[in-house]
Amino acid sequence: MDSSRTVDDLVGLLGTWSVGSGALYRRLADGLRALIDEGSLEPGERLPSERILAAALRVSRTTVVSAYDLLRSEGVFDSRQGSGTRVSLKVAPVRSDGWAANGVGQYMYRNLIQKDADLISASCMSTPALPGFTEIVRESLDDLGPLLTEGTYHPRGLPELREAIADFYRARDLPTTADQIVVTTGAHQAISLVAQLYLRKGSPVVVEDPGFAGCLDLMSDQGARFVPVPLDDQGIDINRLRRAVDEHAPHLVYTMPSYHNPTGTMMSVARRREVGELSARYGVPVLEDSAYTGIRHPREPAPLAAFAPRGAEIISVDSLSKVAWAGLRVGWLRAPAEMALRLSRRKVLADLAGPQLDQVVAVRLLADYDRLSRERSAHLSEAMDHLEALIRRDLPDWRWKRPDGGAALWIELPGIGSRAYAQVALCHGLELVPGTLMTAAPQEHHDRYFRLPVPFEAEGREEIVWRLSRAWRELDRHGPIDAPVPLMI
């Protein structure tokens, strides 16, 4: 295995290996074998020692020894004196499973695909449909008539929807025309299109630290070289941002001003204005990701682009997924008209055009967006109150700051790393996202933190906190494990 990889990389690739039935060592052997079958571990790659892997997985050394022995007996692993344990060269190589090279959030999406009925996953947020959503869909069918006889595509999005999105921004003090809008399959695709257009191998990209793993993956897949900049209580640290732009001449600055994921911080008006001025002065494009909504601040500022002077290149991304329903994959980007045209060409290459039925529904949703977002925010605010009360009751030593908005807590663990805790939580049927996955900086920067999304139902919140407390008591009894070590030992 490449010398830059660590045992934590292997632990992340293993994902939810410990969930299920049967002897623990067999589950571990099955997990390692699956990584070889899918191409994540290649013939000749070196495995960590039994002791190191056992410490990282929070299991006994005997469990790892038995798993390795089983795979050796099957001819999957080879062991030689002085060279450790490796994947056998006799194993037929297969193509990679397609996860982003050097990605940091790949494990989060991996477990979206590999579901387990016994596991509660707190890795990704879910957004059930708001009450009344079904009726909105039914009413939208009446608007579909003219499109059914049209028989064409709209790669940039339905004209009615693009105009509705332009109205959305104009109502937020950001003058916008329909030719500045490209409708996408969720905000995720919008960010992917921007990454494809602006980045190439080695492109310096300034990102907030911590940041959202999924978007870091999209840019990493284009070969981005990250320049992490920390946040303060007003958003991205503007002095360090200026220094990073001056020293690295980035091809892109990526920021989440309303609201930051995972911390929930809302960027101040003054900070938004400073970021816009910096874009204009240095000629650096800024990608403004506003798709992480949920709980909303009553005095939420206008989009960052509204404060940018003439000449600033700001691409704004948003979606309806976190307000209306996660299954409605309608997002969009707003950019200078010439850049919107170039991005729409990327959209054509990606999927030709988005589903028109979804876009018809989106037009009606945008007409009632403010009421719907207030309804979602009120529901989540009550859920957040309940979740915080449960954690204070059962886990009083934990620390966090009530977020300005969004739908998750960024929790700091006292005296223990979140990677170790996440492994113990898995054994209790709960999947967590350690802070080490939410950063492009050295992983130890956020190893005390993890992100905890707010479950929508009270029963789910109670069950999650019960499993969190059981895992915490177990980890507290056994104490912390050693610091992470390189895989090549």
TrEMBL record:
Keywords: Aminotransferase, DNA-binding, Pyridoxal phosphate, Transcription, Transcription regulation, Transferase
UniProt domain HTH gntR-type: residue ranges: 22-90
Pfam families linked: Aminotran_1_2, GntR
GO MF term set: transaminase activity
PANTHER family given in the database record: HTH-TYPE TRANSCRIPTIONAL REGULATORY PROTEIN GABR
Family: In the C-terminal section; belongs to the class-I pyridoxal-phosphate-dependent aminotransferase family.
Protein name in the entry: PLP-dependent aminotransferase family protein
Source organism of the structure: Nocardiopsis lambiniae
